[in-house]
Recover the amino acids of this structure.
């Protein structure tokens, strides 16, 4: 045990544990309490990492607007989606949907339901759909900017 006085007048007691000097004011708990604190801080770090990964896997509002920018002439905002559709065709990119829009001369409809963006075109009873929230997990549809 080594006792030292700091310039501030504080007495510091150093204790040697397995050849590592730790000031005794830093080591005040039992080994079980230290183990519990280590487990709790590890769990907090792991949950924060998973939260950040989940958050970054979904496209942000900024990314959606950037993705929509080249096609703003074709996109019309809607409040609801039509329900009487016989066939739904899902496309991989908004660019693919824009090509279909040009070919069949129909606007791209955009709605937000449950926080998810949906882009679609209605032609008779067929809905051509692009949903970046779902397909972005495959890594092919939305560029995530951080």
């Amino acid at each position: 045990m080594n006792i030292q006085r700091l310039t501030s007048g504080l007495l510091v007691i150093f204790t040697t544990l397995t050849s590592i000097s730790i000031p005794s004011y830093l080591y005040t708990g039992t080994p079980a309490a230290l183990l519990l604190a280590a487990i709790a801080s590890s769990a907090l770090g792991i949950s924060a990492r998973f939260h950040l990964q989940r958050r970054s896997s979904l496209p942000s509002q900024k990314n959606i607007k950037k993705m929509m920018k080249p096609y703003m002439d074709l996109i019309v905002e809607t409040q609801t989606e039509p329900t009487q559709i016989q066939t739904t065709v899902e496309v991989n990119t908004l660019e693919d949907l824009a090509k279909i829009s040009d070919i069949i001369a129909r606007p791209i409809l955009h709605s937000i339901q449950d926080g998810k963006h949906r882009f679609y075109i209605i032609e008779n009873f067929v809905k051509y759909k692009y949903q970046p929230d779902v397909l972005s997990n495959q890594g092919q549809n939305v560029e995530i900017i951080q």
Summary: The mean pLDDT is 75.
